[in-house]
UniProtKB/TrEMBL annotation, chains A, B, C, D, E, F, G:
Protein name as annotated: Putative snRNP Sm-like protein
Keywords from the named record: Ribonucleoprotein
Ribonucleoprotein listed as a keyword: yes
InterPro entries linked to this entry: LSM_dom_sf, Sm, Sm_dom_euk/arc, snRNP_Sm-like_arc
Sm domain segment(s): 5-75
């Protein structure tokens, strides 16, 4: 049984924080509030590590073409 | 309940300034006056930090494919 | 009330010079004479700064995918 | 007899771990749980090597445009 | 009155040489003989500056996605 | 008489190894088992040279947008 | 009278060698045997200069998005 990539995201909506790895070395952590077919994302309580410090970003709309991967769970 | 990424932008139109992170290291702050499905943006009273100084840009039309993320609120 | 990004350009056609920021660090100033939906632009009396000197380019057709932003006014 | 590239992936769903080579030098190993026509992937028990150490990523949704190749088997 | 970017090119077909600025730092000069909607170009008597020397290229078909701008006239 | 680029690939399916040159400097050798219109490829008995050593990759699914060229024969 | 960029290629099919300039600095010389609308190319008796030496590549299928320009004639 196969899982559709985007449908996996439904399981983590408004749940525990996810990690978003972006092109250019950005890594953002936040609660996924929404997404669309382009993988545009809405993150709430987003945090980004910049030069070793955690910067709080509040709500973020991320353009999907920047996404490398989304990690909905960390073991 | 999921939120559509682009619809979030309706909530910040003509409101408090948003921060736009662009590919190539640009970061622009301004009041969002409009957008379209490509994430092309109209910003009013835009400011960009260049070499440590804030440069006022007035109105800007930003081509959507440059956008990494839009931060409509800062905690 | 929202403004459509491309419609803003109608207000500056054949008016005061606009500034075009392009990927790769080009910055061009000129009078906007036309555009299309891809943000292909026609500029008249275009000037580009190259190595600290202003080079006059006359008319330019700019391919839209190079555009970062268009600044129709400077405060 | 020719094999369709995406159909090959059906044979390794939920099987032995695959190796995913991504642009930018990322290499991820995990069990393929799903994919779509864009080569968006769902990986389970994903592991990534970062600075010589293996980092466990749990489940990952990888955006297809980052993929260089997928190696379903290693001789 | 607005000018459509591609229609401007009709005025310089088979006329005086145009300058084509390409991504990656190429700059080519030649007589425009044709174009299409992707900004694919046909240039005749094309010349390119390589390491300070002018190299004659004869006829060139340039793929449109490499174009930064076309300068049909130089003041 | 013209040859369609993709149809050429039919002639080398399951034949002698082909060489695939990929963006980013990868070069892969293997037996072509399938392809599609995006130039997504299935290679069998694939080998890649990494730091001067040949690494056997078994079967590979290569995403077509990484391909620079395919060399079905070497003189 | 304008010439359509792709139709120019019909004139050099199976004729004298053409030069293909590719992104990333590759330059390939060969006899054009076919092309399609994406500028995917089939070259016969292809040669590439690598580190100052000419390497014979036989037949090549070049993916069109790598092409900067095609030079069907050299003056």
């Amino acid at each position: 049984m196969t899982k559709r990539p985007l449908e996996i995201l439904d399981q983590v909506l408004n749940g525990q924080p996810v990690i978003i790895s972006l092109k250019g070395g950005h890594e953002i952590r936040g609660v996924l509030q929404g997404y669309d077919v382009h993988l545009n994302l809405v993150l709430d309580r987003a945090e980004e590590e910049v030069d070793g410090a955690v910067v709080k970003r509040g709500t973020l709309i991320v353009r999907g073409d920047n996404v490398i991967y989304i990690s909905p769970s960390v073991e």
